[in-house]
């Protein structure tokens, strides 16, 4: 009986840590031409634990520039962390604009959860004070639309968003939240690694980011893939990465 409980404990622990598509930039506010070349990082990982998983080349990678979509798939350069792949890219900002970078991954099989996972992931950059349109949907199948400006935020500020699936708010959905923990923070317990909030009746959620760094918000919904797809997608999620900065003297 003890062995059975030990196995169940290990299995439960393996499910406790969320999978995240990760999309971060070296800066999310551009004010000077010397900072005009952005460096982007695309991963699939457990971000708090800094445990990477293999990311295949995404089905789509691009940017919405003031609402107009441009493919950047050809700019991706495969990188390695051990045996696992991730991708890097550069993008040069050439005018004042609001930039929404995104990638749509190929579905990932998770045998332990008996599901296929597809998380459409995005982040925002403001260039030269353009500052408009961040509260508008991009038209992605699944996305988090910010209700708080998604850049130039401080640690300790609240972030709010609305989860849209096929353009409609999703009430009662789980939103899993993790810090991209590249500073070596220690969680008090395994339950602290992934924070979880629920969307309200309007599909909205809120969370206070307690420390500086990149925070990932993964809003999740289970559904089947569209007719004609090669394989079912049981978990279609929207992931948004927000950077909180430390206020210094």
Report the sheet-strand fraction: over 45%
Q: Name the helix and strand elements from N-terminus to C-terminus, one letter apiece.
A: HEEEEEEEEEEEEEEEEHEEEE
Count of separate DSSP helical elements: 2
Number of domains: 1
**Biggest beta sheet attributes:** 11 strands, mixed
Low-confidence blocks of residues? 1-16
How would you classify the helix and strand content by structural class?
A: mainly beta
**How many runs of DSSP E, i.e. beta strands?**
20
Mean pLDDT, to the nearest integer, reads: 89
Cα-atom radius of gyration: 18 Å
DSSP helix fraction: under 10%
Q: What is the overall silhouette? A: globular
Note the gap between the termini.
58 Å
